[in-house]
Amino acid sequence: MAQAVPEGYHTITPYLEVDDAQAAIDFYGRAFGARERTRMQGPDGKIAHAELEIGDSVVMLSDPFPQFVTRNPKELGGTSVGIFMYVENVDELFQRAVDAGATPAMEPEDQFWGDRYASVTDPFGHVWQIATHVEDVPPEEMAERAKAAMAAMSS
Fold this sequence. Notes:
The protein is an alpha/beta fold. It has 4 helices and 8 strands; from the N terminus they run βαβββαβαβββα. The strands form 2 sheets. It has a 4-stranded mixed sheet, covered by helices on one side. A 4-stranded mixed sheet has the order 5-8-7-6, covered by helices on one side.
């Protein structure tokens, strides 16, 4: 009997539509160490479906197709989704992504919730939030830190 969640997958898997899937596959390899697992060619050489492995997770992607309900960030003029990724060294991966062609959105910085956090926008318009967990913050302290951070944001 088939497993409901196939071996090597998690319950939730991001599926990205990108303008130029081949370029995205190349970029994600350089920036994030992505390894291509599978690819299905569509008409005219477009990529109808590809799967990349980044760390212990899978990201799926495709070129745009008019019959798909998703639209890529360039077509939309932005995105409403960020892809959050925990890594061993946020500073190194942030710089690697920028060197590969990502646009810095937030430089690496320690955050009140216990992560060192940064973000970049890839050349295809997708936002990648990158973090290294550096501190376990007790709930009471987290509440105080959050209150102070929110107060600082509003002033």
